[in-house]
Amino acid sequence: MAGRSGYEHGFALLKQRKVREALAFFEQAKDPPNECRAAKWECHMLLGDFEQAWKTSDEISAHNPQQQDCFWNGEPLADSYLMIRCLHGYGDAVQFIRYAKPLREITRRVTVESAGKLLPILRSVAGVDEVITWEDKSRREPFWNQQIEVMDLPRIFRTTQASIPGAIPYLRVDPCLLDRACRHVPEDGAWHIGIAWTAGEWNPVRSIPPAEVGRITSCEGCTFHSLQGTSKAANAGKLAAGARLRWGAGEDEGLDCALALIAKMDLVITVDTVIAHLAGAIGKPVWTLLPFDGDWRWMTDRSDSPWYPSMRLFRQPAPGDWASVVDDVRSQVAGLCDARRVRPLPEAAPSRNTSRLYAPARHGFPPRSRLSGR
After folding, report:
1. Among 9-13, 141-145, 225-229, the least confident range
2. CA of 298: how far to CAs of 86, 158, 270, in Å?
3. Which of 172, 255, 274, 275 stands the most exposed, by the fewest C-beta atoms within 10 Å?
4. Which residues pair with 194 in a beta bridge?
């Protein structure tokens, strides 16, 4: 099967997460060419075959020469003045800003351009000299002679699953905001769990129906804190009556405020949104709830993530089946609470002790010779 019909059949298989079968169709179809290359790239990433994904990225770049004047063109970055532009979602920026430190080791300066909400978060990242935002109309853009979109950074390093930068944390929690968060999270012996159930409006299948949230937060022995923010929590009135929640910090209050509250939680339960990335970036235990056709970065058929060692993945067994996911989460939360009642934790719970909060580096970093991307 060739041409667009082959592509459409491959796309249907991809939605069913029959990834290898879909990949075979995309390789045969080759038309429309750009869509087929992009679909092949997604298949490789879902399969965890990063090496093939980067080769496909090279093909995409080679067939789109008009982009070479705008972003990284394959030239070595050594001794450059680098501009990293965060043009996608907040979670994308948080996930891949981990590359700033090794980049700074071989460049003269690293500047990051991002949305305004990310400024206080990204300013804390090692290797970042300056963060600017396009929202500041009076800003002065510093000199740069190389630029790259943040999501292209893994390709520069030819990252594999074994070489993902694993130094956690790579975000810093503001001490003043952490002190403020402490006042909202008493040391009362309960499990304090942060929860976020609504993702971005552009992909509503990532969000949990409000009626299901109450089934999670009704677990005894736990105190649940909303990490949703006020605008995304507009559907709070639709939550079941049993949804016991303390309203905390979310995106609207500032991502730095949300990060501070996350740091005080014993556990974070969230859909695929920036909250998952913030928790993972500081090594907080986080359970990420995924739709059936989850994003490429979470791959397939696994409950962990090489990007975030402290993360556990819960996946829909069928499209739209959040009930099964929530059943599993409820069971796991109940087990945690039962374990705490049987074996009371010390006054300073290990998961909330900052000396043990952050996992050490678990993966090495690729040699500098790979920085050329060749």
Report:
1. 225-229
2. 20, 18, 14
3. 172
4. 225, 268
Q: Which of 289, 347, 350, 286 is nearest to 314 (CA)?
A: 289
- At 289, list the tokens: 């709830």
CATH tag, 175-343: 3.40.50.2000
pTM for this predicted structure: 0.87
Task: Give which of 241, 272, 247 is closest to 261, Cα–Cα.
Answer: 247
Of 239, 163, 144, which Cα lies nearest the Cα of 197? Answer: 239
Question: How far from 24 is each of 19, 29, 40, 313, CA to CA, in Å?
Answer: 9, 9, 9, 27
Q: Is the distance from CB of 26 to CB of 19 less than 8 angstroms?
A: no
Both structure tokens of 347: 């006054």
Q: What is d(CA 237, CA 239) in angstroms, rounded to the nearest whole number?
A: 5
Q: What is the pLDDT of residues 279-309, one digit of tens each?
A: 999 999 999 999 999 999 999 999 999 999 9
Extract the runs of DSSP E, i.e. beta strands, from the chain. 81-85, 109-114, 130-133, 146-149, 191-196, 222-226, 246-247, 267-271, 286-290, 304-305, 308-315
Whole-angstrom distance, CA of residue 288 vs CA of residue 40: 25
What's the token pair of residue 140? 């002065």
pLDDT in tens, 207-245: 999 889 989 998 888 899 999 875 554 455 556 555 678
Q: Identify whether the C-beta of residue 127 lies closer than 8 Å to the C-beta of residue 152.
A: no
Q: Using the CB atoms, write b or e for 117-131: b if 16+ within 10 Å.
A: bbbbbbebbebbeeb
Phi and psi at residue 259, to the nearest 5°: -65, -40
Question: Mapping DSSP to helix (H, G, I), strand (E, B) and coil, where does residue 141 land?
Answer: coil
Report CA dihedral (74, 156, 369, 165) to the nearest 10 degrees.
170
Q: How far apart are CA 20 and CA 314, in angstroms?
A: 22
The C-alpha angle with vertex 40 and arms to 2 and 115, in degrees rounded to 5, equals 135
CATH of domain 3-63: 1.25.40.10
